[in-house]
Design a protein that fits this description.
The complex is a heterotrimer of chains A (328), B (323) and C (307). Chain A has 328 residues and is of the alpha/beta class. Chain A folds into two domains: 243 residues, P-loop containing nucleotide triphosphate hydrolases (Rossmann fold, 3-Layer(aba) Sandwich); 73 residues, no CATH class. Helix content of chain A is 35%, strand content 24%. Chain B has one domain: 3-Layer(aba) Sandwich (Rossmann fold), CATH 3.40.50.300. Chain B has 323 residues and is of the alpha/beta class. In chain B, strand 4 and strand 5 form a beta hairpin. Helix content of chain B is 30%, strand content 24%. In chain C, helix 4 runs antiparallel to helix 5, helix 4 runs parallel beside helix 7 and helix 10 packs antiparallel against helix 11. Chains A and B meet through helix 8, helix 9, helix 10 and helix 11 of A and helix 5, helix 6, helix 7 and helix 9 of B.
Chain lengths: 328, 323, 307
C-alpha cells in the first residue's frame, strides 16, 4: 500500500441533524498514487465534495462527522493526527482549490500577504525570500505584473485572476497532493482552458498528485489518469480514463456519458437517466441507483451490490456480480 | 421564407454609470452594442458567449423586461420596441421566457398550480374549471404528475422545478420561447432530460426558440443556427454545421477549441487566448476582440469590423474576411 | 403527450412504482408547517406566545371574573398590602389592585394592538410604494421618515398629544404615527429585496400588472418581517402608552390603565410599594413577552437560519 500517496479506506462521513442521519459519504475507498490525477465524478449530493473535505478534515463547522474509515496520507492516518499536525499538513503537503475563489480569499488582506504567510509558516522562508517566492509563483500561474498584483486586494481582480491566485496559493508550498473542487466551474470557457493548461503544466513540473472533483466529463477526459464515479455517497465505478470512456460498465456511468452533448456528433436526441438525482436523506434500500436504472432486476431492489474488482477496475453492480453471472 | 418571426436591428443597451457628486453620469456600460439577427418560425437560434457578452441582456430586451437604448425589434412584421405597456402585455402571450435558476424563478410562497396558472389568470382566464384542466394538462406535458401541483416549489428538485418553469411558459401557448441558460444550473443527467423535453415540445407545438447559453456543446446540440457574441456584439452567425466545421472569426475558433471534449483519446490543438475579457464599461477601440486576438492586425485597433456574409449564409464581423 | 412521466417507473421492476406511491402519500409541506416546525423548538418564545394568548383571553373575559370591580371603593381597606382577600393589595381608595390590573389588560392590549395595526398598515403601504416605484416618491417618503426618526420616540408622541390633546384615543393616534416610519422602512427594504428576485422578473415577463406584482408577489414576501416587527412593536407601543398615561397625557383617572395606576401610586412608594410594584410588573412582563415572541418569530421565519 506504500506506493499510494493517499489511501482513503472505507470512509464514512455522516451528517447529524434532528431529522436523522444523512450518510453523505458511506464507505468510500479511493487511492491516489504520486503524481497521478484522479477525477471524482458525480452529480450534486453524491458526496464528492464531502469526501474531499473529510480528507482535509474541514468538517469542523458542519454537522458532519467522520464515523468510520481511515485516510492514510504518506503513511500517516490523517484521522489520528492532532489538530496542530493537521494544520501543518494542510497547505503544506495537501492544498485545496475551491470552486468560488472569492469566498476563499480574505477580502481585507493584500494578495501577497495571504500567500506569503503560508510560505513563511510552512517553508520557513524569511520575509524577503518569501515575498520573492510569492511573486515567482504568481508569475508562473500566468498573472501579468505579478510584482504589482501582490500588493492588490482580491476584489481588484477578475474571476479568472482570482482562481489563478488560488492556484498560486495552493502550489506555493509545493504540496504533494492538490485537491481541486470544481476549480473551473465558475469560469468562462476560454479562462477555463487557461486554468486547465496551467494545472497540467504544474502537475508535470512538480509531480503533484491531483484529486479533481468535477461534474464536467469533458474536464475529466482532458485532465485525469483515473476516474472514480460516485453516486449517492458510494463509489459505483472506477477505471482508467480510457477504459471508462471507451467501455463504461455501470449503467449510471453509461447513462451519464450518453447524457452529455458532444460537439459534432449530430446525435438527434440525447440519452438520459430517468427520474431525479436522489436526495441523500431519502435513499432506496437496495442498489441506490435502482429507481433510475434501465437494467434494474429484482435483486437490485432488495440488496445493495458490493464494489467488486472487475477486469478494468472496480464496479458496484449486480450485472457484473461473479456469482450471479455464473448462475445465468 | 417570408417575414421572419422575429427580427432584431442594431439593438443597443447602455447602462449609465453614475459617479461623482449629484449622481452625474460619468460613463456607461455598453452591455449590448449594436446586435442584429433574425429568427425564423420553428427554428432554434442559439446565442452563445462568455459572461458579460450581453446575451442575457439581449434576451431581456426582446422580452421587454429592459428598454433598449437604441434599435428595433420586429415581431411578425410589427415594430414592438416602442409599444406602450398595455400593448406589450397582449404581446407577451406570444413571447415567454424560461430562466436559468429554477430555484429563484418560482415564487416560494405559491403552490405549483398557482404558479402554472398565473399566466392564464393574467391573460384574462376566469373560469376555475378551465384553469384546473389546463394546469393538469400542462403538468403532464412537461412530465410531472398532476397531484404534485398542490405542493410548493421547495419540495421539487432542480430538474422538476425547471419543468414547472417550462409549464408556466407554455400555459398561454406562446410562439417564441426565450430560454436563458435553462440547463446550466442542472446536473448532467437532468440537463439531457430538459433538453430532450424542449426538443419534443418544439416538434409537437411548432415552437421557436432563442436559446441563450455559454456551453457550446449544449448550444450545438439544440440549435439550428448559432450566433456568437463577444463584448456586446455579434461576431459570427451561421448555421451550426458551418459554424462548428469552419469557424471564421478567431474568437469563435478559440471558443470552440477551448471546450473540453468528453473523449480522452481526442488530443486537439488548442488555441489559448491571452488575458481576460475586457470590461464592457471600458471596451477596446476598434474590434472589441483585438486585445486577445492571435491574428490582430493594425486596422483591428482602430476600425470596428462590419458584419458581412463571408460564406453563403455564414456571417462574420472580422477584418480578415474583408476583401 | 410528450415528456417522460416522472417519477419514472423502472420497466422491469416487479414491485411497481415504489417511489411514486410513497411520494403521493407524502404530506404536503406548507410554508406554515415549515414555520411551525422551527417555531416550536424555541421554548421561550413558545412560552411567551402562550402567555400572550392567556392575556388576550383575560382581556376578553377579565371584567367578568375579577373578585372586585375596578372602581369599587373600600375606604376601610386603603393601601393594604397583598393578602388572601386582596392578592395585590389595595390602593389609596381601597380599590383592589389585582382586579384593576386585569381590567387594565384590556386597555393596554387594545391600545397596543390598535396603534400598531394602524401604524403598520400605513407604514406597509408607504413602504411598498416607496420600494416598488422608487425614484422621487421613494426619496419623498424616506426623507419624511428620516425627519420622524430624528425625534426621540416619546418626545414625538408627547408633541402629537400636545397638538391633539390628552386622552386614550389620541394616545393610539400618537403611537401609531410614530410606528409608521419604522414599518415604512422595513417594508421598503424587503420590497427592494423581493423586487430584485428572479421570480418577480419572471412574473413581469408573463405580463403581470404592477398591482398584481405588488399584492400577489411582493407583499406576501414582506409579511414575515412585518409579523416580526408587528409583535415587537406591540410591546413598545404598550410601554409608550403607559408612559404617556404615567405623565398624565393618556388615560385619565380613574381608568384602570397600568401607566396611570403606576403614576397614582407614586406618592406611596415608601409606605405602600405594592401599589406601583404590581402594575409595573404587569407592564414589564407583557412587554417582555411580546419581545420574546417577536425574537422567536424572527428566528423561525428567517429562511437563513436553519434549525
Amino acid at each position: 500500500m506504500s506506493e499510494n500517496l493517499l489511501d482513503i479506506n472505507h470512509l464514512k462521513t455522516h451528517f447529524f441533524s434532528d431529522e436523522g442521519v444523512v450518510r453523505a459519504v458511506d464507505g468510500v475507498s479511493i487511492s491516489i498514487k504520486k503524481g497521478e490525477t484522479v477525477g471524482i465524478v458525480g452529480e450534486s449530493g453524491c458526496g464528492k465534495s464531502v469526501t474531499s473535505l473529510s480528507v482535509m478534515r474541514l468538517l469542523k463547522d458542519t454537522p458532519g462527522k467522520i464515523v468510520d474509515g481511515t485516510i492514510e496520507f504518506d503513511g500517516k492516518n490523517l484521522l489520528d493526527v492532532s489538530e496542530g499536525e493537521m494544520r501543518a499538513i494542510r497547505g503544506n503537503d495537501i492544498a485545496m482549490i475551491f470552486q468560488e475563489p472569492m469566498t476563499s480569499l480574505n477580502p481585507v488582506f493584500k494578495i501577497g500577504k495571504q500567500i506569503q504567510e503560508a510560505v513563511e509558516l510552512h517553508l520557513k522562508y524569511d520575509k524577503k525570500k518569501a515575498r520573492q517566492h510569492v511573486i515567482d509563483m504568481l508569475d508562473s500561474v500566468g498573472i501579468p505584473r505579478a510584482n504589482e498584483i501582490v500588493d492588490e486586494y482580491p476584489h481588484q481582480l477578475s474571476g479568472g485572476m482570482r482562481q489563478r491566485v488560488m492556484i498560486a496559493m495552493a502550489m506555493a508550498c509545493k504540496p504533494k497532493l492538490l485537491i481541486a473542487d470544481e476549480p473551473t466551474t465558475a469560469l468562462d470557457v476560454t479562462i477555463q482552458a487557461q486554468i486547465l493548461e496551467l494545472m497540467k503544466k504544474l502537475k508535470e513540473e512538480e509531480e503533484t498528485a491531483i484529486m479533481l472533483i468535477t461534474h464536467d466529463l469533458g474536464v475529466v477526459a482532458e485532465m485525469c489518469d483515473r476516474v472514480v464515479v460516485m453516486y449517492a455517497g458510494k463509489v459505483v465505478e472506477e477505471a482508467s480514463v480510457y477504459d471508462l470512456f471507451d467501455n463504461p460498465q455501470h449503467p449510471y456511468t453509461k447513462g451519464l456519458l450518453a447524457s452529455v452533448p458532444k460537439m459534432r456528433q449530430n446525435v438527434k436526441r440525447l440519452g438520459s437517466i430517468q427520474g431525479n438525482v436522489p436526495s441523500p436523506d431519502d435513499l432506496p434500500v437496495g442498489c441506490k441507483f435502482a429507481p433510475r436504472c434501465p437494467a434494474a432486476m429484482t435483486i437490485c431492489w432488495e440488496k445493495e451490490p458490493e464494489l467488486e474488482d472487475h477486469k478494468q477496475g472496480r464496479c458496484r453492480c449486480w450485472l457484473y456480480d461473479s456469482e450471479l453471472v455464473k448462475e445465468v | 421564407m417570408g417575414t421572419p418571426l422575429l427580427e432584431v436591428k442594431e439593438l443597443k443597451k447602455h447602462f449609465p454609470l453614475n459617479k461623482g457628486w449629484f449622481g452625474r453620469q460619468t460613463g456607461s456600460v455598453k452591455a449590448v452594442d449594436g446586435v442584429s439577427f433574425v429568427i425564423n418560425e420553428g427554428e432554434t437560434l442559439g446565442l452563445v458567449g462568455e459572461s458579460g457578452c450581453g446575451k442575457s441582456t439581449t434576451g431581456r430586451m426582446i422580452m421587454s423586461l429592459l428598454k433598449p437604448t437604441d434599435g428595433q425589434i420586429w415581431f411578425k412584421g410589427q415594430e414592438i420596441s416602442k409599444l406602450k405597456d398595455d400593448e406589450v402585455r397582449d404581446l407577451r402571450k406570444d413571447f415567454q421566457m424560461v430562466f436559468q435558476d429554477p430555484y429563484a424563478s418560482l415564487n416560494p410562497r405559491m403552490k405549483v398550480k398557482d404558479i402554472v396558472a398565473e399566466p392564464l389568470i393574467i391573460h384574462g382566464e376566469k373560469d376555475k374549471g378551465v384553469i384546473q384542466n389546463r394546469v393538469d394538462e400542462l403538468m403532464k406535458t412537461v412530465g410531472l404528475n398532476a397531484f404534485q401541483a398542490d405542493r410548493y416549489p421547495h419540495e421539487f428538485s432542480g430538474g422538476q422545478r425547471q419543468r414547472i418553469g417550462i409549464a408556466r411558459a407554455l400555459a398561454v401557448k406562446p410562439k417564441l420561447i426565450i430560454a436563458d441558460e435553462p440547463v446550466s444550473a442542472l446536473d448532467v443527467s437532468i440537463q439531457s432530460q430538459i433538453l430532450n423535453l424542449l426538443q419534443d415540445l418544439q416538434e409537437e407545438m411548432g415552437l421557436t426558440y432563442l436559446f441563450i447559453a455559454h456551453d457550446l456543446s449544449v448550444v450545438e446540440h439544440i440549435s439550428d443556427r448559432i450566433g456568437v457574441m463577444y463584448l456586446g456584439r455579434l461576431v459570427e452567425v451561421a448555421d451550426k454545421d458551418s459554424l462548428y466545421d469552419e469557424p471564421l472569426h478567431p474568437y469563435t475558433q478559440a471558443l470552440i477549441s477551448a471546450v473540453p471534449v468528453p473523449n480522452p483519446r481526442l488530443k486537439r490543438e488548442r488555441i489559448i487566448l491571452k488575458g481576460d475579457i475586457p470590461s464592457p464599461a471600458n471596451p477596446p477601440t476598434g474590434c472589441p476582440f483585438h486585445t486577445r486576438c492571435p491574428k490582430a492586425m493594425d486596422i483591428c485597433k482602430t476600425k470596428v469590423p462590419v458584419m458581412r456574409e463571408a460564406r453563403e449564409g455564414h456571417y462574420t464581423a472580422c477584418h480578415l474576411y474583408e476583401s | 403527450m410528450v415528456g417522460q412521466p416522472e417519477p419514472a417507473v423502472p420497466k422491469n421492476d416487479p414491485k411497481g412504482p415504489r417511489v411514486d406511491v410513497k411520494d403521493e402519500k407524502k404530506k404536503v409541506k406548507t410554508p406554515f408547517s415549515e414555520f411551525w416546525k422551527k417555531f416550536k423548538k424555541q421554548r421561550l418564545a413558545l412560552f411567551a406566545g402562550i402567555f400572550i394568548v392567556l392575556l388576550l383571553i383575560l382581556a376578553a373575559i377579565g371584567p367578568y371574573i375579577t373578585p372586585y370591580g375596578s372602581e369599587e371603593f373600600d375606604y376601610d381597606n386603603i393601601l393594604v398590602g397583598p393578602s388572601l382577600a386582596h392578592w395585590a393589595g389595595t390602593d389609596a381608595y381601597g380599590r383592589d389592585i389585582f382586579s384593576r390590573i386585569i381590567a387594565g389588560t384590556r386597555i393596554s392590549l387594545f391600545v397596543g394592538l390598535c396603534s400598531v395595526l394602524l401604524g403598520a398598515t400605513a407604514g406597509t403601504i408607504l413602504g411598498l410604494i416607496s420600494g416598488f416605484y422608487g425614484k422621487w416618491l421613494d426619496s419623498l417618503i424616506m426623507r419624511m421618515c428620516d425627519v420622524m426618526f430624528a425625534f426621540p420616540g416619546i418626545l414625538l408622541a408627547i408633541g402629537i398629544i400636545a397638538v391633539l390633546g390628552p386622552g386614550l384615543g389620541n394616545v393610539i393616534i400618537a403611537v401609531s404615527i410614530f410606528s409608521v416610519p419604522i414599518f415604512a422602512r422595513i417594508v421598503r427594504s424587503t420590497t427592494l429585496a423581493v423586487k430584485a428576485t428572479l421570480f418577480v422578473e419572471a412574473t413581469r415577463s408573463l405580463g403581470a400588472t404592477n398591482r398584481r406584482l405588488i399584492w400577489k408577489h411582493i407583499f406576501p414576501g414582506t409579511t414575515s418581517s412585518i409579523i416580526v416587527y408587528f409583535t415587537m412593536r406591540i410591546g413598545t407601543a404598550i410601554l409608550i402608552a403607559a408612559s404617556l398615561s404615567f405623565l398624565g397625557l393618556g388615560a385619565q383617572p380613574p381608568t384602570p390603565e397600568w401607566g396611570a395606576m403606576l403614576s397614582s401610586g407614586r406618592d406611596y412608594l415608601n409606605t405602600a410599594p405594592h401599589v406601583t410594584f404590581f402594575p409595573g410588573m404587569a407592564i414589564f412582563v407583557t412587554v417582555l413577552a411580546f419581545n420574546l415572541l417577536g425574537d422567536g418569530l424572527r428566528d423561525a421565519l428567517d429562511p437563513k437560519i436553519k434549525d
